[in-house]
UniProtKB/TrEMBL annotation:
GO terms for molecular function: NAD+ binding; prephenate dehydrogenase (NAD+) activity; prephenate dehydrogenase (NADP+) activity. This is Prephenate dehydrogenase. Keywords: Oxidoreductase. Residues 6-244 form the Prephenate/arogenate dehydrogenase domain. GO terms for biological process: tyrosine biosynthetic process. The keyword Oxidoreductase applies. Gene3D superfamilies: NAD(P)-binding Rossmann-like Domain. The keyword Oxidoreductase applies. It comes from the Bacteria. It holds the Pfam family PDH_N.
Amino acid sequence: MNIKKQKIAIIGFGRFGELLAKILKPYGEIFVVSKRNIKIKGYKQIAYTDLTEMDWVIPAVPISSLEEVLKDIKPFLKKGSLLMDVCSVKVYPCRWLKKHAPKDVEILGCHPMFGPDSAKNGLKGLQIVVSPLRIKEKRLKEVLTIFKKLGLNIIKATPEEHDKQGAVNLSLVHYIGRGLADSGFKDQKIKTAGFDKLMGINENVNNDTWQLFFDIQHFNPYSKKIRQNYLKSLQKIEKKINNK
């Protein structure tokens, strides 16, 4: 499938926004909206008012900031353009996309299941979840073709399906990782393969921001119950140890 080069605007240029710009650069002209002054060759910095010229608009901002950004950019989105989020949760962001995007703009929920650390050795085999909300078949095929060319494993899921599983594979993993870091565990000379895996979780999770941690706990409607169940299980295990 021949893919037309897109004008792609990325709003927010943190660690993930910069990664997104890098991996999408072969497929379009990259424009950046950021409060910081971006001086990176190959990217042009623009303002919200310039979004009228963009084919794709991708907010790469903290989950807690997304709804406000969607409200701010609404007047400037071009008819027929694509608005796509990349949040680590999907129920609330997809609800906000439907609420605030103009009816003549296509919308797609998306969660790249990787970040700068997990993608440092390439994207091949990594997952990306898509939740088609209001998007024409031709546009969706174009987007999925790009994801396939990047080597990503594409998974279609509803926002609810995504967040139910995400409460375990993301929220709980980050919860455990932060607990390990707070406990002061560090790499050591005498260790098992299992210990190495725990340290891997510790490293990956703690390279992410506290803002992301709090957002995936607060904005996934299923996370609290998973945390509570996990803590109850630990209490049961502790009782078994003490009663043995």
